[in-house]
């Protein structure tokens, strides 16, 4: 279909061109109009795709109108929640970005322990709103991450051992489909779609709001201890032993990273105890006493404070390239590779982290949601981050080389939220990433998006 949006169109005459129907309150933006460039700002500055038009709907009805406009004008559709996608799925080159920034509200019902969260909200919005009532739910470990993308892909965080994935805590999702229909997916309404939305990504429509279970969580005991990079192997072995039988309430990450202020490399253990405060000191004592460390930070704090404390490590506007490998167990050769590559990274902000999950995430029955990796206890996350485009080749090569060294010891299939999907094997890796859920996801995709309108994601092809 030939586009009916002319090169001279402005915000005002776009509404004139698309004909009668629900308006978008003037929020159709083109290059040169106020707000357009701000809407294009993404977490990963390596992504350079520029849409022809940005829609900023303020209601579900306006989301449906935006999707119809895009389809009538033969424009590829992308959905921007937090704009935090490593792979840059939030934007499109020459199409329509549907920016959910105006759908960012969070309403908390403390009596029912529920949160209703707009599709454009960030985890900081949820953490702060729920925390005002001493409540929380599993969210990302970086609070600037969008709720929608993380949740639809599964969603890990510091409470994953205690309460499962973010998607395990969903009660319902309000969705706008490819034909502009508004519907609610829940265990009792469109249960096939509700299953798919918990791990199947943004393949089925635009999630305009989520309803989450909340849990009592006044404070956590959390922090980080750092050791010299020369002791990296010892730190990683300690982490493996500690997490072999860790309680659900204790989540610990181990890795090689740069200290945020000065870029000094360190072998670090980051931890969060979300259980009984009376048991907190005993739970984290082994972490604090291992070493001795060269730096220790441990503090009882509101959960929202800890979940936002990592944002400094992953700032907006840096150039990011990530790979990851899920593990059932940690082979010695994985620890050796992480220690060697991490201690000798050629750029300051390259880091390699072994994330421990376990607990409630693993106990959820396989197939109960579309998230297929219930048997994964660990994930090696290889983070490339730098500021200068001239460092792209060095950073990308380091990420790929470390990933190639650890991937043979992992389980088949990527945790798709964590990776930059590039290369000739992209389609295969996406299919493997959905694992045993693939065939059922294809069926749901054919039912709700047979024309594959929503393909700016880890695409399930109908």
Automatic annotation (TrEMBL):
<dbReference type="InterPro" id="IPR036318">
    <property type="entry name" value="FAD-bd_PCMH-like_sf"/>
</dbReference>
<dbReference type="InterPro" id="IPR016164">
    <property type="entry name" value="FAD-linked_Oxase-like_C"/>
</dbReference>
<dbReference type="InterPro" id="IPR050416">
    <property type="entry name" value="FAD-linked_Oxidoreductase"/>
</dbReference>
<keyword id="KW-0285">Flavoprotein</keyword>
<comment type="similarity">
    <text>Belongs to the oxygen-dependent FAD-linked oxidoreductase family.</text>
</comment>
<feature type="region of interest" description="Disordered">
    <location>
        <begin position="1"/>
        <end position="25"/>
    </location>
</feature>
<protein>
    <submittedName>
        <fullName>FAD-binding protein</fullName>
    </submittedName>
</protein>
<dbReference type="Pfam" id="PF01565">
    <property type="entry name" value="FAD_binding_4"/>
</dbReference>
<feature type="compositionally biased region" description="Polar residues">
    <location>
        <begin position="1"/>
        <end position="13"/>
    </location>
</feature>
<keyword id="KW-0274">FAD</keyword>
<dbReference type="Pfam" id="PF08031">
    <property type="entry name" value="BBE"/>
</dbReference>
<keyword id="KW-0560">Oxidoreductase</keyword>
<dbReference type="InterPro" id="IPR012951">
    <property type="entry name" value="BBE"/>
</dbReference>
<dbReference type="GO" id="GO:0016491">
    <property type="term" value="F:oxidoreductase activity"/>
</dbReference>
<dbReference type="InterPro" id="IPR006094">
    <property type="entry name" value="Oxid_FAD_bind_N"/>
</dbReference>
<dbReference type="InterPro" id="IPR016167">
    <property type="entry name" value="FAD-bd_PCMH_sub1"/>
</dbReference>
<dbReference type="InterPro" id="IPR016166">
    <property type="entry name" value="FAD-bd_PCMH"/>
</dbReference>
<dbReference type="GO" id="GO:0071949">
    <property type="term" value="F:FAD binding"/>
</dbReference>
<dbReference type="InterPro" id="IPR016169">
    <property type="entry name" value="FAD-bd_PCMH_sub2"/>
</dbReference>
<feature type="domain" description="FAD-binding PCMH-type">
    <location>
        <begin position="46"/>
        <end position="217"/>
    </location>
</feature>
<dbReference type="InterPro" id="IPR006093">
    <property type="entry name" value="Oxy_OxRdtase_FAD_BS"/>
</dbReference>
């Amino acid at each position: 279909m030939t586009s009916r949006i002319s090169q001279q169109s402005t915000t005002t005459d776009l509404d004139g061109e698309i004909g009668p129907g629900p308006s978008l309150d003037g929020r159709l933006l083109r290059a040169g109009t106020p707000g357009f460039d701000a809407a294009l700002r993404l977490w990963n500055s390596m992504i350079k795709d520029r849409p022809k038009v940005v829609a900023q709907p303020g209601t579900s009805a306006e989301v449906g109108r935006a999707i119809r406009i895009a389809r009538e004008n033969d424009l590829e559709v992308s959905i921007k929640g937090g704009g935090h996608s490593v792979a840059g799925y939030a934007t499109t080159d020459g199409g329509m970005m549907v920016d959910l920034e105006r759908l960012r509200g969070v309403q908390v019902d403390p009596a029912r322990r529920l949160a209703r969260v707009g599709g454009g909200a960030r985890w900081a919005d949820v953490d702060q709103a729920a925390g005002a009532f001493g409540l929380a739910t599993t969210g990302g470990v970086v609070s600037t991450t969008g709720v929608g993308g993380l949740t639809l892909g599964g969603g890990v965080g510091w409470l994953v051992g205690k309460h499962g994935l973010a998607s395990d805590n969903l009660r319902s999702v309000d969705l706008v489909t490819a034909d502009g229909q508004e519907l609610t997916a829940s265990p009792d309404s469109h249960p096939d779609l509700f299953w798919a939305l918990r791990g199947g990504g943004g393949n089925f429509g635009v999630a305009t709001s989520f309803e989450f279970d909340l849990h009592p969580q006044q404070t956590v005991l959390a922090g980080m201890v750092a050791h010299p990079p020369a002791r990296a192997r010892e730190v990683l072995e300690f982490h493996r032993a500690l997490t072999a039988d860790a309680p659900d309430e204790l989540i610990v990450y181990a890795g090689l990273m740069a200290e945020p202020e000065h870029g000094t490399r360190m072998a670090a253990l980051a931890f969060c105890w979300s259980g009984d405060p009376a048991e907190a000191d005993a739970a984290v004592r082994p972490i604090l006493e291992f070493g001795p460390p060269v730096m220790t930070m441990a503090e009882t704090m509101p959960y929202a404070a800890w979940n936002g404390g990592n944002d400094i490590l992953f700032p907006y506007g840096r150039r990011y390239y990530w790979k990851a490998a899920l593990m059932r167990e940690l082979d010695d050769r994985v620890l050796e590779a992480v220690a060697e590559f991490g201690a000798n990274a050629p750029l300051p902000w390259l880091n390699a982290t072994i994330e421990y999950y376990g607990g409630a995430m693993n106990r959820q029955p396989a197939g109960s949601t579309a998230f297929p990796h219930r048997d994964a206890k660990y994930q090696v996350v290889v983070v490339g981050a730098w500021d200068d485009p001239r460092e792209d080749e060095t950073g990308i090569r380091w990420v790929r080389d470390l990933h190639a060294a650890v991937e043979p010891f992992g389980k088949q299939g990527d945790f798709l939220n964590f990776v930059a999907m590039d290369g000739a094997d992209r389609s295969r890796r996406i299919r493997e990433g959905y694992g045993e859920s693939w065939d059922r996801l294809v069926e749901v995709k054919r039912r709700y998006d047979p024309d594959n309108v929503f393909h700016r994601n880890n695409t399930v092809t109908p």
